[in-house]
Predict the structure.
Amino acid sequence: MGIETIMDMLEKELDIKRFQHSVNVMEVSQSLAEVYGADIEKARLAGILHDCAKNYKGDEARDYVEKIGYKADEIELLQPKLLHGIIGEHLARHIYGVTDEEVLGAIRWHTTGRAGMNLLEKIIYVADYIEPLRYFEGIEEMRKAAYEDLDRCIVLCSESTIKFVLNKGALLHSRTVETRNHSIMLIKERNEKSI
Ligand SMILES: [Fe+2]
Ligand SMILES: [Fe+2]
């Protein structure tokens, strides 16, 4: 199905704020795709759909992943909101008719990121943080970094999440830490090569 149809469906599915966030992520993803040479249609599709499972919470989320055979880890089971990327990928495939594996992967991993993200995954991860409706400490630096160095922006985004989670006293998912560490290693490797 076309992206217009998907947008109509999402507008009914999500609350107005979440839908506006999704439209913003779609637009920021497009502009990042233009800067970094990624596929623009894929970036728009993954951007608009990334939070399509945001309404799945608590037992509904836990039951959904069990039904599709995803083995949630302890932290995901205790904080089932973390599962909306996994569920989102499944909905994108089976409800919204997405077949492109890159788009599906970008939806799947946007919540925590992961070590070794591909370009589209990085773009969606970053766009989710810096879209215009977001406001928190350090956002201007993140917005600037997003267009200069995606990996450095990912370090800033994941560190911001880690600080937020620590301040709240909540459970921190190890994938967020892996996302940060991997991006730092990528930058280090790059710098060593350029010497
Ligand atoms: Fe999300
Ligand atoms: Fe989001």
